Amino acid sequence: MIVKNVTRKTILADKCEIASTFFARLRGLQFRKEFSPGYGLLITPCNSIHMFFMRFPIDALFLDSENRIVHICEGIKPWRVSGNVKGACCVLELPSGTVSSTGTAAGDILDMQP
Fold this sequence. Notes:
The protein has a single domain, classed as Protein of unknown function DUF192 (Jelly Rolls, Sandwich), CATH 2.60.120.1140. About 10% of the residues lie in helices and about 35% in strands. The protein has two helices and eight strands; from the N terminus they run βββαββββαβ. A five-stranded mixed sheet has the order 3-4-7-5-6. The chain has a three-stranded antiparallel sheet with strand order 2-1-8. β1 and β2 (about 10-15) form a beta hairpin.
């Protein structure tokens, strides 16, 4: 799946996976050795994340039901927890630095296409 920031006219991920089952959401990016630029993981439904057993920091975009960014965690490090984000129904996990390099901000709207 391709994820575009419609507001900023940038591509956030051109190789995004979806984690929509209980076990896929629980596993997330755990135990992966790397998370290269251009990759992403959309966790749905989801309003909080944990970084247990992670090997690298990530950027996390919390989205509402209209794919509007309601909260951003930049560079969240392994062994941290985001806490619950009010209004979030899914989370897009991206390689650390993606938010700053694309100018992505809360309030931006994303478009996701297969």
